Amino acid sequence: MSSSCEFESLEKTLESHIPEAELAEVRRILFGKETQKLELPLCAVESAAQRDFELKGFGFRASVEQLRPPRVLRVGLVQHHSVLPTDAPVQEQISAMHRRVGEMAEVAAMCGVNILCFQETWTMPFAFCTREKEPWTEFAESAEDGQTTRFCQELARKHNMVVVSPILEREELSDTLWNTAVVVSNSGNVMGKTRKNHIPRVGDFNESTYYMEGNMGHTVFQTQFGRIAVNICYGRHHPLNWFMFSLNGAEIIFNPSATVGALSEPMWPIEARNAAIANHCFTCAINRVGTEHFKSEFTSGDGKKAHHDFGHFYGSSYVAAPDGSRTPGLSRTRDGLLVVEMDLNLNRQISDKWSFKMTGRYAEYAELLTRAAAPDFKPKIVKE
Amino acid sequence: MSSSCEFESLEKTLESHIPEAELAEVRRILFGKETQKLELPLCAVESAAQRDFELKGFGFRASVEQLRPPRVLRVGLVQHHSVLPTDAPVQEQISAMHRRVGEMAEVAAMCGVNILCFQETWTMPFAFCTREKEPWTEFAESAEDGQTTRFCQELARKHNMVVVSPILEREELSDTLWNTAVVVSNSGNVMGKTRKNHIPRVGDFNESTYYMEGNMGHTVFQTQFGRIAVNICYGRHHPLNWFMFSLNGAEIIFNPSATVGALSEPMWPIEARNAAIANHCFTCAINRVGTEHFKSEFTSGDGKKAHHDFGHFYGSSYVAAPDGSRTPGLSRTRDGLLVVEMDLNLNRQISDKWSFKMTGRYAEYAELLTRAAAPDFKPKIVKE
After folding, report:
1. Is A32 left (phi over 0), alpha (psi -120 to 50) or beta?
2. Nearest 10 degrees: Cα torsion A7, A31, A233, B236
């Protein structure tokens, strides 16, 4: 496991060993049509270095059309460690996370980012592995006017940026908890929220003991820069979830996540990218980094001894495009900001080329799925 | 383009340049949990070398259970060139393909293969790019008693093997054409057939001018070795298609294909593998190899000059497992047989671990999809 924590990134290893002539082919097969490296402003590069986080920029191109102007925007993906130890006072942990992400957002603003998205439950350690309720539920806040939403509203106004802020939400009147993403317009207004539609029961992901499946469907947010949606973490394993966001008009689907190496790493480059291909849209996969240690020991339901950490969150945030291409990933180990320029016109261009939505036979699948979901479903199995 | 034809395989390039210590991590991230190399019998290795095709063998392991015995079987995937020039007489082309695939099937038998699957429309060049009907529709045969089905029945009986034979089908009475896969039991009986559910309208894939969308749904075949289904070619871009085969009980889904480098290669490792992950099953992606030249020139709807070939079919056949791991691919350039041993118990073990089908909320999606497929669907879009 230690070697897998230290391994910095697939991309770096490929670049340092494979000769240039073959590297182009390797990249084409692994990552698709090459993304352009973005020239980022010197002040941003210097700030990122000073503040000790990785900064990378890439761009996807679309063809120039006659009747539609390009619809170019920049998204920013933020991945980071839990700043303070998990046993620091709750308010101090939250404030430290605000400060860290605030300085990363400032660099995003220097890079001209229009929509910035943070990782899942970004203000807290991913403490659901412990199955303790105290003090972790204290990190839950109101989506509409909690301190984190107010913090994001300030960021949004200051930088003229849409901010997608995934938090642990508490509905004040009912005391219900949710895993939620708040969408703040670049005007600073809260546009709304969306909730995690699928809740894992896997390994140390004991989230179903904290909150239930989302009840807000597949809302899409029409921002000034494009139509966005948020598919939180485990929802990426469910193709129907991505699909329904797309059918509701999403042009970019963010997937803020928290996931560890031993469990899911080989699936990570596959699922969000498959969703971009299948739905003719952009997808943005974001994962936290680092290993979070908890004071109380806990077991993982795998017959192994009790321990104090969940494993290594491997970062590797990336953006995938509808043509099957993707950016390189951020590091597996460091805080990072990925700035990606995209022209949303690419979505329709690829749709016109591949036509998955036109060849999808959706009305027939609606009937098939209705039958298959019924308790008396008879599978169509041929025997000899 | 020429360099991309010559590039033999991603796996080979990685192995020849990346130091052993890092290679293990690269492989883990790219391919998941390592597959075992299969010891194949010397006679098979020698026959493959003599007959000039690549032979590779890998195995996926499952845990030993107390109440279920292991359900171990071997599948074989065959990828090959069109043997004769495309202007050779039709019967000679078919016979040459039978001979070639027959000798590969013999090696598969030596390797203990239980289910053997060929590439899409394996008895013919992929001539649909020409938009000519003559002589290509002459390659169409009866699924029940055409010469190719009879050939496969002999193979099946001789080698005690299930044979999946994707052909261009002609329904004799109506003269209708279909893109079909015939499933022949290891007893030699035709178990049935299944048809390509989604037809491309992409680049040189003019197939919609030859045959229509399949009308046979998502049949699953209960063979002696396991429940199998066939998702033909372009159906791999449609997550709902894989999903419905899985809901009907498929444990292994074959994806016989014909696809070219410039268009789809970066999607190739993603889609079948995503389907294995999302549906807790094995998927087998098979693509032909080589460049097929046609006497008549044709254009590709891309503003470029008329030409005589479709581009390079890049092979790279592989098998993906429900745990997100996959085998290395066959070569991009050579005929090949991939022998893969799998224990079907892995499907349920991974389902019990990840529970995608239990957390999938299918009844709700059936309603959502029914609404979304209706012409008066109102997307759920929030504006400021």
Report:
1. left
2. -130
Q: What's the pLDDT at B203?
A: 85
Tell me: cis bond preceding B135? Omega within 30 of 0 counts: yes
Q: Are A14 and A321 in contact (CB under 8 A)?
A: no
Closest CA to B255 of B274, B176, B23: B274
Phi, psi of A371 (to 5 degrees): -65, -45
Question: How far is the alpha carbon of A342 from chain B, nearest alpha carbon, in Å?
Answer: 19
Say how far residue A46 (Cα) sits from the centre of its chain.
26
Q: Is B304 a catalytic residue?
A: no
- H helices present in chain B, as ranges: 2-6, 10-17, 20-31, 42-50, 90-110, 147-159, 239-247, 261-264, 268-279, 345-354, 362-372
Residue of B nearest to A267 (CA): B324
Residue B2 lies in a domain: no
Q: Beta-carbon neighbour count of residue B171 at 10 Å?
A: 14
Tens-digit pLDDT profile for residues B213-234: 999 999 999 999 999 999 999 9
Rounded to 5°, angle at Cα A260 from A256 and A264 = 85
Which chain A residues touch B225 with a CB distance below 8 Å?
none
The answer to whether residue A17 sits within a structural domain is no
Query: pLDDT by residue (tens digit) across B2-37?
Result: 446 678 999 999 999 999 989 999 999 999 999 999
CA angle B159, B163, B169 (to 5 degrees): 140
- Report DSSP letters for A4-70, one per residue: HHH---HHHHHHHHS-HHHHHHHHHHHH-SPPEEP---HHHHHHHHHTT-EEEEEE------SSS--
Phi, psi (deg, nearest 5) at residue B30: -80, -40
Contact A192, A221 (CB under 8 A): yes
CB pairs under 8 A between A and B: 262
**What amino acid is encoded at B366 in this protein?**
A
User: pLDDT-derived band of residue A180, with 50, 70 and 90 as boundaries?
Assistant: very high
A289 beta partners: A314
Query: Is B196 among the catalytic positions?
Result: yes
3-state SS, residue B216: coil
b/e burial code for range B47-63 (CB count within 10 A of at least 16 → b):
bbeeeebbbbbbbbbbe
Q: What is the CA radius of gyration of chain B?
A: 21
Element of type H or E holding A107: helix A90-110
**Chain B residues touching A269 at Cβ < 8 A:** 29-30
Query: Looking at the domain assignment, is residue A27 inside a domain?
Result: no
* Active-site choice (A56, A129, A196, A292): A196
Instruction: Give the separation between CA A297 and CA A308, rounded to whole angstroms.
Output: 5
Chain A residue whose CA is closest to B362: A373
Split into its structural domains, chain A has a count of: 1
| Within-domain flag for B131 | yes
Say if residues B262 and B4 touch (Cβ distance below 8 Å). Answer: yes
Contact B22, A10 (CB under 8 A): no
Domain CATH code at residue A337: 3.60.110.10
Residue B34 CB: number of other CB atoms within 10 A? Answer: 12
Strand (E) positions, chain B?
36-37, 54-59, 72-79, 115-117, 162-170, 177-184, 190-195, 220-222, 227-230, 252-257, 282-287, 289-298, 307-314, 318-320, 336-343, 381-383
For residue B1, is pLDDT > 60? no
**Domain of A195?**
35-372
